[in-house]
């Protein structure tokens, strides 16, 4: 990817819609997840800024069906960061807007999760009610992309939600966001991890290796696994 002489990346070679989304304002936080400001998605994902400590708030949704299968998505080729990689159901950021800044009971993050499930996967709000999201913990991680211009440095809220039959979840993917989807069991996901030809996002690997396979057997009592106050520093 090219850049101007001042180091600012040129985005003209990227997908127009994905470039537009780079203007969204993320919530900038300190390592204790205290809100200290806001900056654009583009600014927050440049490694030049990440290497200076810029950190933003994010979330990762894990949506299960009534058979305890996890819905995975493969990120679209159009994505600027981590294109074509498989990951958990939905990964994104609460925005610096009043509804998503509200911190009590993680309500702002839950609203952001609803919004992005609808945007990326077409899942209507009624199929992902706010009170059905189970907040488990937060992770703090840093991960560069294959393209060294970009990366992630996030405090990531982990949200589980279990719904009914897979066919009733009403997934209608946005092809600009999602290339493919798949419902998997624990064993099927482990087989995907064992296949070196299947690319996986770094945060998904960290969450799976540290927590997911321990939590999965407790889906019907998932709040017993909740660690509300810890921010787990993973991967660095």
UniProtKB/TrEMBL annotation:
**A single GO CC term, please?**
cytoplasm
Which residue intervals define the domain Nudix hydrolase in the entry? 54-206
* Recorded superkingdom: Eukaryota
Q: Which Pfam families match?
A: NUDIX (PF00293)
Pathway-wise, it operates in: Isoprenoid biosynthesis; dimethylallyl diphosphate biosynthesis; dimethylallyl diphosphate from isopentenyl diphosphate: step 1/1
Question: What reactions does this protein catalyze?
Answer: isopentenyl diphosphate = dimethylallyl diphosphate
Which BP terms from GO are recorded?
dimethylallyl diphosphate biosynthetic process; isopentenyl diphosphate biosynthetic process; steroid biosynthetic process
Record GO terms (molecular function): isopentenyl-diphosphate delta-isomerase activity; metal ion binding
Identify the InterPro entries for this entry. IsopentenylPP_isomerase_typ1 (IPR011876), NUDIX_hydrolase-like_dom_sf (IPR015797), NUDIX_hydrolase_dom (IPR000086)
What are the alphabetically sorted keywords of the record? Isomerase, Isoprene biosynthesis, Lipid biosynthesis, Lipid metabolism, Magnesium, Metal-binding, Steroid biosynthesis
Q: What is its EC number?
A: 5.3.3.2
Q: Which cofactor does it need?
A: Mg(2+)
Which protein family is named in the record?
Belongs to the IPP isomerase type 1 family.
Q: What name does this protein carry? A: isopentenyl-diphosphate Delta-isomerase
Task: Kindly list the organism's lineage.
Answer: Eukaryota, Fungi, Fungi incertae sedis, Mucoromycota, Mucoromycotina
């Amino acid at each position: 990817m090219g850049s101007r002489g001042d180091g600012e990346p040129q985005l003209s070679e990227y997908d127009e819609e994905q470039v537009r989304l780079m203007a969204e304002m993320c919530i900038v936080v300190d390592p204790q997840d205290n809100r200290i400001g806001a900056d654009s998605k583009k600014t927050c994902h440049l490694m030049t800024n990440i290497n200076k400590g810029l950190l933003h708030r994010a979330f990762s949704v894990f949506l299960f069906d009534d058979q305890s299968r996890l819905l995975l998505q493969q990120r679209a080729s159009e994505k600027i960061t981590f294109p074509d990689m498989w990951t958990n159901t939905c990964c994104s950021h609460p925005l610096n807007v009043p509804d998503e800044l509200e911190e009590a009971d993680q309500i702002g993050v839950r609203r952001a999760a609803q919004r992005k499930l609808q945007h990326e996967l077409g899942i209507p709000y009624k199929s992902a009610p706010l009170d059905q999201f189970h907040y488990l913990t937060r992770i703090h991680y840093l991960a560069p992309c294959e393209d060294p211009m970009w990366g992630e440095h996030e405090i990531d809220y982990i949200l589980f939600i279990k719904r009914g039959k897979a066919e009733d979840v009403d997934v209608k993917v946005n092809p600009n966001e999602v290339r493919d989807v798949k419902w998997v069991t624990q064993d099927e996901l482990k087989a995907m991890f064992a296949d070196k030809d299947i690319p996986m996002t770094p945060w998904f690997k960290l969450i799976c290796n540290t927590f997911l396979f321990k939590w999965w057997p407790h889906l019907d009592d998932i709040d017993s696994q909740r660690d509300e106050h810890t921010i787990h520093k993973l991967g660095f």
